[in-house]
From TrEMBL:
<keyword id="KW-0326">Glycosidase</keyword>
<dbReference type="InterPro" id="IPR001547">
    <property type="entry name" value="Glyco_hydro_5"/>
</dbReference>
<dbReference type="GO" id="GO:0016985">
    <property type="term" value="F:mannan endo-1,4-beta-mannosidase activity"/>
</dbReference>
<dbReference type="GO" id="GO:0000272">
    <property type="term" value="P:polysaccharide catabolic process"/>
</dbReference>
<dbReference type="Pfam" id="PF26410">
    <property type="entry name" value="GH5_mannosidase"/>
</dbReference>
<dbReference type="InterPro" id="IPR045053">
    <property type="entry name" value="MAN-like"/>
</dbReference>
<comment type="similarity">
    <text>Belongs to the glycosyl hydrolase 5 (cellulase A) family.</text>
</comment>
<keyword id="KW-0732">Signal</keyword>
<keyword id="KW-0964">Secreted</keyword>
<feature type="signal peptide">
    <location>
        <begin position="1"/>
        <end position="25"/>
    </location>
</feature>
<dbReference type="InterPro" id="IPR017853">
    <property type="entry name" value="GH"/>
</dbReference>
<dbReference type="GO" id="GO:0005576">
    <property type="term" value="C:extracellular region"/>
</dbReference>
<keyword id="KW-0378">Hydrolase</keyword>
<protein>
    <recommendedName>
        <fullName>mannan endo-1,4-beta-mannosidase</fullName>
        <ecNumber>3.2.1.78</ecNumber>
    </recommendedName>
</protein>
<feature type="domain" description="Glycoside hydrolase family 5">
    <location>
        <begin position="33"/>
        <end position="365"/>
    </location>
</feature>
Length: 411
């Protein structure tokens, strides 16, 4: 009798072990790993990672009102259904109404819980996030708010460009970085720096500097802040937030700018060791206002190909088209014109990604839920209300997924 019980117990233990291992295997499958970089490619679980994505900068702001959170969920669900797997959004709101950072080092817990919710919803829907840490512009506070905080305590400042050079203001920024990266999500219970749903951090949205168009002041700032971010979080990728303007490091490259400089330098700023990939934005309808569609599209092609070439040969890092769109406020706008513009951009991304994977994907500006008219900026896309545009987006997602499989099979 004893031996039978022993045998039954042994059989039970074997089954228990098998079921435990099966559960562990299942949890391993559903737990996403961190997106990594290997040379000029993004990698996920040892295979090339390509994507189609979108911007929805407003998510934390909207999620701060519990009655509006469904809008965040709706956009993630519909984006995921359209094959979109990356969302870029703000992890900042400095001073003023609905601020995340009320004043230097003082945070609004309700707003932080809204960001927790955004990350949780992204995770549920299989969408990864690029989170930007401060704005160049005064919207949501940005550089001007940081400088104003310093000014209000009696620290002598000249202009908003002191953001990059004043040691007190740089201390404010570093504190914000540390606070966000070490935040423990109240929903997932995971620290942001340990959350694989986050693909990358962005130092600043569209850095510009009026007192120095060479790119050197911004470069010194990046050289200080990039290692600081990595000292706290070595798991995540990091990018600057650049639009792609060329500076003085390679003067010949300035011919590709849209007729002006903004104080950043695509090459030198992205060469900083702790920066993992390059980014470009493009708004030819805005930058080249007054030029016809043909000239604007010719600019786009030059913009895309020159940055890809530099990313591949000089930076030796991946490239992401982190913002592009066409505004309905443009004189030549129609839904058909916007779809055509997006198709052209998508085709360029796809064809260049085919050739080695350096061009990893694009993020259209911007997706909204229905009834969010207060966030309209001319570029808004509501997937349920714009079926033709939704189709253009879904087709690109399918092509990038198929290409990713092809490249994975070659590895």
């Amino acid at each position: 009798m004893t031996s039978i019980i022993k045998n039954l117990f042994s059989i039970y233990m074997v089954f228990h072990l098998i079921s435990t291992l099966a559960c562990e295997a299942r949890s391993l499958r559903v737990t996403p790993n961190f997106v990594q970089r290997k040379g000029t490619e993004f990698m996920l679980n040892g295979s090339p990672f390509l994507f189609n994505g979108f911007n929805s900068y407003w998510m934390m702001n909207v999620a701060s009102d519990p009655n509006q959170r469904y809008r965040v969920s709706n956009v993630f669900q519909k984006a995921s259904a359209a094959g979109l797997t990356i969302c870029r959004t703000w992890a900042f709101s400095d001073g003023g109404n609905q601020s995340l950072q009320i004043s230097p080092g003082l945070y609004n817990e309700q707003m932080f819980q809204a960001l927790d919710f955004v990350i949780g919803e992204a995770k549920k829907n299989g969408v990864r996030l690029i989170l930007s840490l401060v704005n160049n512009y005064k919207d949501f506070g940005g550089r001007p708010q940081y400088v104003e905080w310093a000014n209000s305590t009696g620290i002598p400042v000249n202009n908003d460009d002191d953001f990059y050079t004043n040691h007190v203001i740089k201390g404010y920024y570093k504190n914000h970085v540390k606070t966000v990266l070490t935040r423990i999500n109240t929903i997932t219970k995971i620290a942001y720096k340990d959350e694989p749903t986050i693909m990358a951090w962005e130092l600043i949205n569209e850095p510009r500097c009026q007192v120095d168009y060479s790119g050197k002041i911004i470069n010194e700032w990046v050289k200080e802040m990039a290692p600081y971010v990595k000292s706290i979080d070595k798991k995540h990728l990091l990018e600057v937030g650049l639009e792609g303007f060329y500076g003085d490091s390679i003067p010949d490259r300035k011919q590709y700018n849209p007729g002006f400089q903004v104080g950043s330098d695509f090459v030198s700023n992205n060469l900083v060791k702790d920066i993992d990939f390059g980014t470009i934005h493009a708004y030819p309808d805005n930058w080249l206002a007054g030029q016809n569609d043909t000239m604007q599209m010719e600019f786009m092609q030059r913009w895309i190909t020159s940055h890809l070439q530099d990313s591949r040969t000089i930076l030796k890092k991946p490239l992401v088209f982190t913002e592009f769109g066409m505004s309905k406020n443009d004189s030549g706008y129609s839904i058909e014109a916007r779809d055509s513009f997006m198709n052209t951009v998508y085709s360029s991304i796809y064809s260049l990604a085919q050739n080695g994977g350096t061009f990893a994907g694009g993020l259209v500006w911007q997706l909204l839920d229905e009834g969010m008219d207060s966030y309209d900026d001319g570029y808004e896309i509501v997937l349920t209300q714009n079926p033709s545009t939704s189709s253009v987006i879904s087709q690109q997602s399918s092509k990038m997924i198929a290409l990713e499989h092809t490249l994975s099979n070659k590895h």
